[in-house]
Amino acid sequence: MGSITLYVPEPVPTLGVVSATYDEILTHPERFFQGSDIVWMMTSSSLVFLMIPALSLIYAGMGNRSFALTLFRLPLITAGFISFQWALWGYAFTFTRSSAKWWGGERRAFGLTDVIAHPIDIGDRGQGGSIPELVYVLYEGMFAAFTAALVCGGTMHRAPPTRFLGFITLWSVLIYYPVARWSWDSDGWSNKLGVMDFAGGTPVHIVSGTTVAAFAVFCGIEERRESGDVVTATERLFKSLYKRMYKRLINPWVELWKTLLSLVRYCAVRYFGKSPPVFEDDESDGDSYDEYEQEVEPYSVNYVVLGTAILWFGWSGFNGGSALGGNLRAVSAWTSTHIAASSGGAVGVLLIWRRKMFARASDPSQNMSYDNLTALYFCDGAIAGLVAITPGAGFVPVWSAAIFGVISSLVVYLLKEEALVFLKRDPLQIFAVHTGGGIVGMCLTGLFASQTTIGLDGHSTMPYPDRTRGQRLGYQIVDSVAGISYTFVVTMAILYFEKFVVFMFINIGRPLHHWRLVPGVTNTYRDHLQATPMQAWRTTGDDVLLHTIDPHNHQGPQPGPITEAPTINGHTPHQQVVQMV
Question: Domain Ammonium transporter AmtB-like spans what residues (predicted)?
């Protein structure tokens, strides 16, 4: 290979070993830390924080009208609570030294008493530059806040905000801190095994998605228990699981035959104007569908698109900042992130176009139900790509990022179809997107990790470089399975503990709703009223409320004659006064 001529400004940056006391570092920090690294990490921290209001937009847009306001507010409130907790004890438990393997315990870190300028190594310990500890505290605190905010979408239909905040406080201490420690801290068992997780495939995405899945399972069990139908529900679950496995795995030719028939039908309608006979499947699953089995009607597609755009922008700090410095590895991580999101979004659009094609072939009247789905599927695919590339952004070459996006988008698309049956109480599909995408990313990271990419910061090396790709993949799977298992078990334990506390101390002689507007009006109904535009209280000439008109009519409601607004206990909705109970 020929030589390359470079024009490098003087002086050339160099690294050297310097001995100094902590007081000397505090007095002259500019002598020991690169200002460019600090600026980049501060910028990255701000970008990660920007992802939290992006989640508010996405969750509010994806959820239905009845919960739009709660889902819009809760991520930011949650982030505030967790950031406060991170300052008090979170950082100390996660990243400081201790005799225990699962917890830190340095007193100086509690309350951020003395975390100003202790050096944090950027790459391998003792091999490269460093950043001040306070910068690292801020950056990792944003990760903790964002992960907790991800869980908010799983509370839809279920938990009042105050009880959720109690849950998420315990959850952070018992789940997030230990998993983050074993993944990123030098004393963590996963880190010592050589598992590669650049920016949070397991501690952020797999953990948050599994938490929502456990939340959904818990709520399903409790609802069936209250109705006395636990045994019947379990039998139905296993029957449905068997039937779907039979269709997907044992007899795949049936699905292929149906696909070919749909394609023939489409061609016949498209080119000959005739429709061949439709053969109905006489076999029924025999499952009864309740309200949770219906797909959630999105409140605002525009919110979802805007939120995804902001999330995409913020992910540059989420992955790029995990290089812990302004170096070429950070550039590679951000470039890979952008390519993975773009390819994932493109695959999402192709999948919905395929679905539209078969829908038109089978029933042309179904076109209306797909009007806004192209944008939603693009956003789903883009987020799946972002999630998948997270663990590998700083480990894999840029050319492999498109593979992350394509495979994750396909896997999440298929997993969402199954989750509609088995996780009906996760209407925003957080488990499918984040746990599914996180597992894909962890596995692909083990296959595509490259020393060339890892060493772009100038001082990092691949852990256990003599391992084969298969061995690295095995360790990546072990870490993912450990994250799923630990998170699910501990989340269920927290939920049952909270149920016990509520039963013993709170829920004696009081309604289950944490607060109401007036007796008989729940917070869900209040959100429904507040999220309804003012003109929706107008009626048509037939005294039909406009907000009850077919939602697939995207022309929007047409104003009619103004009539008296509906009343509740003698008051209009906007005259209700919040009463704490």
Answer: 39-228, 291-503
Which residue type sits at 236? R
Q: Judge whether 206 and 438 are in contact, CB under 8 Å.
A: yes
Rg from Cα positions in the chain: 26
Q: What phi, psi does 571 have (nearest 5°)?
A: -125, 150
Specify the pLDDT at position 263. 59
Collect all residues with Cβ–Cβ distance below 8 Å to 19 and sequence separation of at least 6.
none
Query: Which one of 188-192, 216-220, 482-486, 555-559 scores highest in mean pLDDT?
Result: 482-486
Pair (69, 215) in one structural domain:
yes
Please give the torsion angle defined by the CA atoms of residues 541, 545, 546 and 550, in that order, rounded to the nearest 10 degrees.
-110
The span from the CA of 355 to the CA of 471, in Å, is 38
Instruction: Please state the domain count of the chain.
Output: 3
Q: 502 and 390 share a domain?
A: yes
Counting every residue written for the chain, the total comes to 581
- SS3 category, 235: helix
Q: Is the pLDDT of residue 162 over 50?
A: yes
* Structural domain boundaries, residue 238: 230-266
Q: Is residue 62 part of a domain?
A: yes
Does residue 287 sit within a domain?
A: no
Residue pair 94/140 in contact (Cβ under 8 Å)? The answer is yes
d(C-alpha 68, C-alpha 58), whole Å: 10
From CA 267, how far away is CA 555, in angstroms rounded? 31
315, 307 Cβ separation under 8 angstroms = no
